[in-house]
Design goal:
The chain is mostly helical and 268 residues long. It has nine helices and two strands, in the order βαααααααααβ. It has a domain at 98-267. Helix 6 (123-147) runs antiparallel to helix 9.
Length: 268
């Protein structure tokens, strides 16, 4: 009797390794573009977002137009009143703060409880989640301590507040953890959780990634990070988080769940 192999899956797609290499290539290119020429594009993108969304404190656009000398390097759009008159952030502030909280310890504990209740792996699922967050978080904190980048609205060495300028003080994080910007810790945690949840429940991958991206973007909207910060944090969170999740799952005997249908065999 001859055995015939029947595939119930979709046509062959690119391998995970190839996809990950493409994603890494795009991330590296984006970071090069944002950080080149003293991060001019990074600063411009951050200021443009603030121009559109508005400050956490209402920005006095009338004063900018009346006294342009206070903003000698401002492009033309920074002296034009934006849509919603810089109040868009204030109209949606509760939403952005809720998204920001996805990366805080209380929300991590809450999601771990949901994993305990709904995932068949129970405590093993929680262990996978925590290993992903802690592993990626350790890498993120190491980079943050070495780079020492000042937040876009952080305090400069001269005591003045930053206004989106690109300021780095290497190894500053080993002396103080105040106003460290690169990479974003919230973005790292959000994507690390998305990686662990994707390992446990791949059907929700798009939802997990959407929440992670919105959490990361909230950090730019709230002026705590540059775009290059959240891209770096998200990349570390996703790749290191997924690696740590696989490492822990293999030791706990939790196989990776997949959406690819299994190949079946039937007699001819």
């Amino acid at each position: 009797m001859q055995t015939v192999t029947v595939s119930t899956g979709k046509p062959h797609r690119a391998s995970p390794l190839k996809k990950n290499l493409i994603i890494l290539g795009i991330v590296v290119l984006a970071e090069i573009l944002l950080l080149s020429f003293n991060a001019r594009l990074d600063t411009t993108a951050w200021r443009a977002t603030r121009w559109l969304m508005g400050d956490q404190q209402p920005y006095n656009w009338k004063a900018v137009r009346l006294n342009p000398k206070t903003h000698p390097n401002a492009p033309w759009w920074r002296t034009v009143t934006p849509p919603f008159h810089s109040q868009l952030y204030h109209h949606t502030e509760s939403t952005w703060r809720a998204l920001r909280d996805v990366g805080v310890p209380a929300e991590v504990i809450f999601i771990c409880l949901l994993v305990w209740v709904y995932d068949p792996a129970r405590w093993k699922g929680i262990a996978i989640m925590l290993s992903s967050i802690l592993g990626a978080g350790a890498v993120s904190e190491a980079f943050k301590s070495v780079c020492g980048r000042v937040r876009p609205i952080g305090t400069l060495p001269n005591g003045h507040l930053n206004d989106g300028l690109n300021v780095w003080h290497w190894f500053r994080g080993f002396h103080t953890q105040v106003d460290l910007s690169f990479p974003s810790g919230h973005a790292c945690v959000a994507f690390a959780m998305a990686a662990a949840l994707t390992y446990l429940s791949p059907k929700g991958r798009r939802l997990f990634l959407l929440v992670a991206w919105l959490t990361s973007f909230s950090r730019v909207v709230m002026q705590a990070h540059f775009y290059s910060d959240i891209i770096a944090g998200g990349t570390i969170g996703w790749f290191c988080g997924f690696g740590c999740a696989i490492w822990m799952a293999e030791r706990l005997g939790v196989p990776q769940r997949t959406l690819v249908p299994e190949v079946q065999t039937s007699p001819a």
